[in-house]
Amino acid sequence: MRSFILFLTATILLTGGLVKAQPKHQFTLGDNDFLLDGKPFQMISGELHYPRIPREAWRDRMKMAKAMGLNTIGTYVFWNLHEPQKGQFDFAGNNDIVEFIKIAQEEGLWVILRPSPYVCAEWEFGGYPYWLENEEGLVVRSKNPQYLNEYDKYIKELGKRLSRYQVNHGGNILMVQIENEYGSYGSDKDYLAINQKMFKDAGFDGLLYTCDPAADLVKGHLPGLLPAVNGLDNPAKVKDLINQNHDGKGPYYIAEWYPAWFDWWGTKHHTVPAEQYTGRLDSVLSAGISINMYMFHGGTTRGFMNGANYNDKSPFEPQISSYDYDAPLDEAGNATPKFWAFRNIIQKHLPAGVNLPAVPPVKPTIVIPQIELNNVAGLDDLKLESKNSQNPLTFEDMKLDYGFMLYRTTITGGKSGILKVKNLRDFAVVMINGETVGNLDRRTGLDSISVSLPAGNVTLDILVENLGRINFGKYLLQNKKGIVGKVFFQNNEITGWQNFPLPLKTAGSYKPKPGLASSNTPVMKKGVFSLASLGDTYLDMSDWGKGMVWINGHNLGRYWRTGPQQTLYVPREWLHTGTNEVLVFELLKPQSQKLSAVDKPILDRLQ
């Protein structure tokens, strides 16, 4: 019962006087409990990330959080979204973190803010902007002056926008996390102290804390700050670990509690039954420990923002677009069995006679039987102006952040042999005289194919896709994309390249090109369909090969027949009654012409 002694009080403060009069509150550390205005307060929190949810649905997801019994939400802040190019900041649309926090305040939810610079989060480059790779000598997560200079400018920009929403300034941000699981990467306490000072100088003058997995907490903890623990839910062990690193006292916070896990291409969909977690949640709440579920709602990693894992013992593992995470809310924001199981546990800890809000109804879904698509653009229509070079240039050399690069050269034909691309990052379509002859794939180590060249001068094209920069581990600084090495044919180096960027940042406008129909090279296709009523739906891409999809200008993410994800979630908020447009950039099966949408996701089918 003590777990929720201030649950209603906190809600009233947020939904009533706080929004209108914005009174300041005190959120401090007691020996055993967090203290809100001097009274014990237990955070029952869930993680949800604003860029993984359509802006139009932020409020709906927060209402679901309250209905499950959460009084707090946690979110990272993603540096690469907010400073996509050096010195150019973006806080508009789905990047409007200020509006996200204000909506949470209106909905009666407190916020735990995790402003990076590094987030991991199965996110491209762990949240770092790609252009850091172009800063000579820069070393992330270190005292390197170039890094600290760029980091400082970013965190001050955040502070200008977000510091006013801290609880001690009348807002709903209870705590702010510095760095993120730093103990899994390093142990430099001076670096962590610099982080702390930078946050304070940026205006984050409330309660700061660190978080680390249990095994790495000692390395990542900065004395004087509260150490939160990730991935540990045994109450006695949580309390013992924090006591050891916090002068023998609490309060106690599990900053990341995992109800399941994420997925990557070519492996099964990860699921864990709710009953394996309900007892653990019950014991944590009974012990008065605050908790943040990672994830409460995963959503979708749209566009090119998925990250990848890689280390010396495992292959390159780019993550899928769905961030369903087998979480209490599914990818579309509907309650799963975990939601109901966790809600029942939380209800047990409410004071007698207090009930949770009613759960909003399941959202409607629709089926779209068939959409006809026509070819509208080939590679030459999509590429930007090239730059010539002896050796292939990387994405970073071309200031290309995400997407694709087309490498083109002319070689003498009339012979056969092995074509090898050294240090390919990450997936390639190889074409001879405008016809696809094979694919290369970093995941499987496939960097060579056997080719037969026709007589005469032969055009060699290699289209390379960036499948996501590494987001965790020691290889954060080995994240350049494209052809990072050299290309060889018959063991002879090929030189003299044209490098064409294909960023595909926006959907673009294209007219039908029937002449492309006979080609077997990557192609952009367009279809138009009409809707009389709206609902969430899922594009079934299982008969297609590999590529990306846009609906009414919104990038839905990547698809790949290899699985386990076979559908792309289409939010109701991005559809229109009447005419809608879909664009598909298909790499492997350009002959595909028909598309349908189903009313349930397919996230567990490997090909």
Automatic annotation (TrEMBL):
Residues 392-502 form the Beta-galactosidase 1-like first all-beta domain. The keyword Hydrolase applies. It comes from the Bacteria. Residues 34-348 form the Glycoside hydrolase 35 catalytic domain. Coiled coil: none annotated. Residues 524-580 form the Beta-galactosidase galactose-binding domain. Signal peptide: none annotated. This is Beta-galactosidase. Keywords: Glycosidase, Hydrolase. One of its GO terms (molecular function) is beta-galactosidase activity. Belongs to the glycosyl hydrolase 35 family. GO terms for biological process: carbohydrate metabolic process. InterPro entries: B-gal_1-like (IPR026283), BetaGal1-like_ABD1 (IPR048912), BetaGal_gal-bd (IPR048913), Galactose-bd-like_sf (IPR008979), GH (IPR017853), Gly_Hdrlase_35_cat (IPR031330), Glycoside_Hdrlase_35 (IPR001944). The active site is at residues 181, 256. The keyword Ribonucleoprotein does not apply.
